[in-house]
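Priority: medium. Attachment 1 of 2:
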């Protein structure tokens, strides 16, 4: 069961360098915020402050009750959505060392159809909530922080996406009051494959390859109400909740160390599904908990007000409250090597599902410079749904890890019982950034069609900890997006 000292040193170095080089691209794609983008022609230009308006097909997403105040059949399509995102991790391991992670995407993000039947309105929409794809090949030769390493290579393919598809209905109860509902089918996917290779100064090497695929399905109902107490004021509110119906996941990994002797302990294997998971590492057989196949089942309440002082100008304001989420399951492990058995007790919290509640604000305005041309502008907040990350907490975590290994154990004969403390350094929710965004849009409108172009810029700063063996580092976020929307009316 014991490894030689050289193998242990190589394992620690490998884990540290590999984690530093690639973990940011793994977790940077995970949703650390609840606002992923904007959907629809006017909503983007207003910075998402659309709950009290919602009078085009995108109202199916923001507030289906707003569809009750539409009077034309419409088709709305996002011709393109270009997004350029940059994440910067500053002072990793040593002062001045910065790691940048970038993403560029070009995707349609909304398609909506709307049909009027007097007071009844029916719609159908497809929302591409987010779609991140990465193809990376990284190589580092003779890193200064680890003189025993000759080269490190990483080959990565990742894709994270979420799609909503479903019908909507709205009923105009009176000329001032409307109710509506949308029922979305939700499909959330994660596909990751990676190969990591590292060669040391004595020409020995280690290699790790894994594939992690997850599919989660569910329903997301949205209910809404909209009321216009006077001609110049509109009030709106909507509520949604994610219900997970099922999912599956498959994880396969193998790890090869050239310093090990040929035989059954030469290669490590790990395989897991949503039913069970197991591993053979250095000859030790471990029964692990089943893999998580879910996504957070959060709720969101949107409340908005819109003001129309003239026929050419409007202003809107939204409050968006998203709930937190926490899930627990048995995550204990049982390991065996010959007659020796180890029971490892771990924390029950599934940390990749943990979310912190957020409250965000959005405000926007629209002004018609001419009868067929308008300019839109907005401002919004995008608070993190993660816990704050502090330097003090990371320092304490490293101290406990170095002194006690973050675990307590007791042995009797061939049986060992171990309690493993949860480390803040290995928390996958390892990014905290308070973001702010602005929007600027232009729209050309005729009696039969409209075209809009919107630019959105979002920036933020905070802390992160992408290397479990280092202190927390400063983090900066920057994203620039361009939305092009086309609509037709009948």
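Attachment 2 of 2:
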């Amino acid at each position: 069961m014991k490894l030689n000292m050289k193998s242990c040193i190589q394992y620690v170095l490998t884990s540290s360098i590999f984690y530093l080089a690639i973990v940011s691209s793994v977790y940077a794609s995970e949703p650390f915020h609840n606002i992923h983008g904007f959907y629809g022609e006017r909503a983007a230009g207003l910075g998402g402050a659309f709950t009290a308006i919602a009078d085009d097909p995108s109202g199916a997403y923001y507030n289906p009750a707003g569809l009750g105040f539409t009077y034309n059949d419409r088709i709305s399509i996002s011709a393109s959505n270009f997004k350029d995102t940059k994440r910067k991790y500053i002072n990793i391991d040593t002062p001045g060392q910065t790691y940048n992670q970038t993403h560029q995407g070009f995707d349609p993000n909304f398609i909506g159809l709307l049909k009027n039947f007097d007071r009844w309105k029916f719609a159908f929409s497809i929302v591409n909530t987010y779609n991140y794809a990465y193809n990376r090949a990284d190589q580092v030769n003779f890193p200064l922080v680890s003189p025993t390493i000759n080269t490190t290579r990483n080959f990565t393919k990742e894709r994270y996406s979420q799609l909503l598809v479903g019908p909507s209905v709205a009923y105009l109860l009176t000329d001032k009051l409307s109710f509506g509902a949308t029922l979305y089918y939700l499909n959330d996917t994660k596909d990751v494959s990676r190969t990591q290779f590292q060669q040391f100064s004595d020409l020995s090497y280690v290699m790790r390859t894994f594939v992690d695929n997850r599919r989660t399905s569910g329903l997301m109902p949205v209910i809404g109400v909209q009321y216009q107490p006077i001609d110049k004021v509109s009030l709106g509110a909507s509520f949604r909740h994610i219900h997970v119906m099922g999912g599956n996941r498959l994880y396969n990994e193998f790890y090869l160390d050239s310093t090990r002797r040929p035989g059954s302990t030469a290669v490590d294997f790990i395989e897991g599904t949503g039913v069970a998971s197991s591993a053979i590492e250095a000859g030790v057989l471990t029964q692990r908990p089943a893999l998580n196949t879910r996504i957070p089942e959060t709720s969101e309440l949107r409340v908005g007000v819109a003001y129309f002082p003239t026929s050419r100008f409007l202003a809107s304001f939204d409050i968006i409250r998203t709930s937190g989420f926490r899930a627990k399951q048995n995550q204990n492990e049982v390991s065996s090597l010959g007659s020796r058995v180890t029971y490892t007790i771990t924390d029950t919290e599934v940390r990749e599902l943990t979310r912190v509640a957020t409250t965000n604000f959005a405000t926007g305005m629209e002004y018609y410079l001419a009868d067929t041309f308008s300019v839109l502008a907005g401002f919004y907040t995008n608070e993190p749904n993660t816990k704050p990350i502090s330097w003090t907490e990371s320092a304490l975590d490293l101290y406990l890890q170095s002194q006690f290994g973050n675990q307590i154990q007791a042995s009797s004969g061939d049986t060992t019982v171990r309690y493993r403390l949860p480390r803040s350094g290995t928390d996958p929710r390892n990014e905290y950034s308070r973001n702010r965004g602005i929007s600027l849009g232009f729209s050309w409108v005729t009696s039969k069609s409209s075209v809009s172009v919107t630019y959105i810029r979002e920036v933020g700063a905070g802390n992160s900890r992408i290397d479990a063996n280092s202190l927390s580092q400063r983090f900066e976020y920057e994203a620039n997006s361009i939305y092009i929307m086309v609509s037709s009316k009948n």
